Amino acid sequence: MTSPAADRARYDRATAHLDAPLALVDLEAFDANAADLVRRAGGKPVRVASKSVRCRALLERVLAQPGFAGIMSYTLAESVWLARSGFEDVLLAYPSTDRQGFTELAGDPKLAAAVTVMVDDPAQLELIDRARDGGREEIRVCLELDTALSLFGGRVRVGARRSPLRDPAGLAELARLVQRRDGFRVVGLMAYEGHVAGVGDDLVGRPLRSRAIRLMQSAARRELAARRAEVVRAVRAVVPELEFVNGGGTGSVQQTAAEEAVTEVAAGSGLYLPRLFDNYTSFHGRPAALFAQPVVRRPGVGVVTVLGGGYPASGAAGADRLPVPYLPQGLRYDPQEGAGEVQTPLLGSPADDLLIGDRVWFRHAKAGELCERFAELHLVEGDRVTATVPTYRGEGRTFL
């Protein structure tokens, strides 16, 4: 692993022939992060979350590595596109109301065999049937378990609001309903514990909050492991041939994989390692995806202004949703302006060493959302760009 200063020099040399703004992926860091995810999974396959990658070439690269199997997609249109592109195992992680997509799925045996859709409500089955338009292909179905931690008799909830199904009886009943319905088959179960996998537990300068998060996550893991095992037993009693039980995310790979009931884990953000994944005690990776903005102004001592840069991430609004100035180290936002739509002032002593046309390298707060800002990614090995590949956006695909 090289120093930040050495990395900055490498990236500047590698992209000297390119105009900024631009985005790159350091393939050595990307591959090292992939290998670490496989190590942490302890022999269970890792399904790649495509929303965190959003680049077909890099999805193909990681799936070619031992230990990875299948894609977890985020829209039905994306799922169909990936299946038509040759990806053979695509699990749609969210329910869909894409009628055109369901028409294609029900009418094409290759698509129907490659794509599994998410269901947590009988009304979703009704919508799919109405969209069939004569298509008779069997739809592969995955059921989703709500993983949120419920405290004080349900008065306090910790976790994302996803599936309404929490208990073994509810999941088993929906499994029976799906199995009895012509044209559908339950093949999997998913339970994503975002309050564990997606929340850092080592916040800089906040030891008490970090301790509270660790206590919450420990309790959540124990509760969910017991409940998930009960749910899997109940669903397997209805569907003995259940193909997979998916769980986890980048921040919980090793803990989720350790559960006997889980057959595979999901991860994606850990490949790029955006800034929101810096604050974990369970693992440490290498920043692999960066973007560069050019210095266009020098307003005064200790200040430079770069072009653009206002690329906030989704989630509850806050400073942690902003990209972070990464290289050179020591730059910070002007609190009066923050990350701007067309220009971003940056403060700090390193600004005095930057000239017009120099680059400031940033890390996005979240992983795949960076690719919605750039049409292509420059793949860097050592101090050379060895390939340039399109993002989803660069291929004309903006699914969400």
Key descriptive features of the protein:
TIM Barrel; 9-stranded mixed β-sheet; 12 helices; 8-stranded parallel barrel; 24% strand
Question: How would you sum up this structure, described in words?
Answer:
This protein is of the alpha/beta class and 400 residues long. The protein has a domain at 26-271: Alanine racemase (TIM Barrel, Alpha-Beta Barrel). The protein is 32% helix and 24% strand. The chain is built from 12 helices and 19 strands. It has helices at residues 4-14, 27-41, 56-63, 76-84, 99-107, 109-114, 122-131, 168-180, 194-197, 207-238, 253-257, 269-272; strands at residues 22-26, 46-49, 68-73, 90-92, 115-119, 139-144, 149-151, 156-158, 184-191, 244-247, 264-267, 289-300, 303-307, 324-327, 332-333, 343-347, 359-363, 376-381, 384-390. The strands form 3 sheets. Strands 1, 12, 13, 14, 15, 16, 17, 18 and 19 form a 9-stranded mixed β-sheet that branches. Strands 2-3-4-5-6-9-10-11 form an 8-stranded parallel β-barrel, surrounded by 6 helices. It has a two-stranded antiparallel ribbon with strand order 7-8. A hairpin with a 2-residue loop joins strand 18 (376-381) and strand 19. It is globular and about 70 Å long. The two termini are 35 Å apart. The relative contact order is 0.17. The model has no long low-confidence stretch (mean pLDDT 93).
Compact overview of the structure:
The protein is α/β, with parallel strands linked by helices. Helix content is 32%, strand content 24%.
